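User: I'm new to structure prediction. If I give you an amino acid sequence, what do you actually give back? Let's try with this one:
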Amino acid sequence: MSEMIAYGGRNVPLLGSYDAVIVGAGSAGCAAAYTCAGHGVRTLLVEKSIRTGGSSVNALVTPMMDSYTGHHSVFYDLEAALNKRAQTRDQFGTLQRNYSADNMADAWEELLQKAGCEILYDACLSDVIIENGKIRTLIVTTCEGLQAINGKVFADTTGDAVFLREAGVPTSHGDDQGNDQLSSLRFEMGGIDIEALRSYVMGLHDKYSRNNIKGDLFESAMVGGRGFSMEPLFRKGVEEGILTEDELRYYQNYSIPGKPGCMSFNCPHLVNLKSNASAMDRSRAVQDGHASIQRLVKFLKKYMPGFENSYLIREADMIGIRESWRLNGIYVLTSKDYIKQARFEDGIARGDWWIDVHTADGKEQEGFEFKHGDYYEIPYRSLVCKDIRNIICAGRCISTDFLMQASIRIIPTCIDMGQAAGEALALSVKDDIELNVIDGKNIRERLGEYR
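Assistant: Good question. You get back a string of structure tokens that encode the predicted 3D arrangement of the chain. For your 451 residues, that looks like this:
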């Protein structure tokens, strides 16, 4: 008979007891679990969907954005696993890593299995049991109903800081007006003549599209009112009633390695979703997104060269959320740290992506980009809090202000933060030291040199 845990006036079966439990199998969570398990620590990764990869898989967030800082080892382990499936780099020579969502999920799962990490799919965090300032037990909802999971140390890599909030840890979200960055509902299409599309876009002397090499990967974009060369074509779609002004807020698409004739679309923006803190608002926005995708598919087939025989492959199973709740940690990383390229003794990851804010009001965010080789550091103290001693977080929900979060949120940076969290989890278990008192300089040393 299973051991039972007292919870809410009832007994809940204990699924298992682990050294480290990580909730959320996105880029940060997979990196943390892979690292922690690789140290021989009994590790469980809990994921609400049935694929690893988080937004990069379930929200179809492809590709990784350019990053020139160098990274920790897990990033390159993942890149090698992706390259076994399809080449991630384009011939143009950018540092943007391209991949299919399917390959990303399979690559992470392969790495995690090799490291000896256990994965619990189709399990949603429901509650947290805390004793004496430390988490003792998670309550998760599975196909068997409520189940309990015991652990020594824990990580929140959910993106929305779900775990932290359930544990009562203070968080923030949004800008000064309470608005979050706009989210997207992405989709994929097949049957595209990419060379015809490339010829058309490059013939417009478009300043965004760079890859003018036959057979290479390709991407294009259009943002209304920003001088993009394809805007007149999109305006025609609005005039003829196929598109609405909402579809002109943001349009972007990418080739998918290993899938000839297929492209991934970083749109539409969910323009009516101003705050990601409302479950009903998110649900209404999903419905708006579905309708918007149908309009875009109809428009592309009718007007965009290369799309004459195209078709919709799939819509994302998850909203592409750029920003929501953020930890109020021991150190809050701010846009001032970005501007001065801050360095920290406990710096455990580097960031160099620009402050890329998709504003709720549609106004362009002023800012500047680094030169290649410039970077700021993320301190270990931004991953931990004073309130709970045995939890750490990694990914887009670490302790930052609104503007800085727009830079740290990209996949390469999240992977590096995840590896740092995994090192900390393993160290905490093996040396019996609380996560929020670990000296971040020690984690920096364990991570070693950037490659």
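You can read the tokens as a compact description of the fold. Here is one thing that stands out. The first helix runs from residue 27 to 38.
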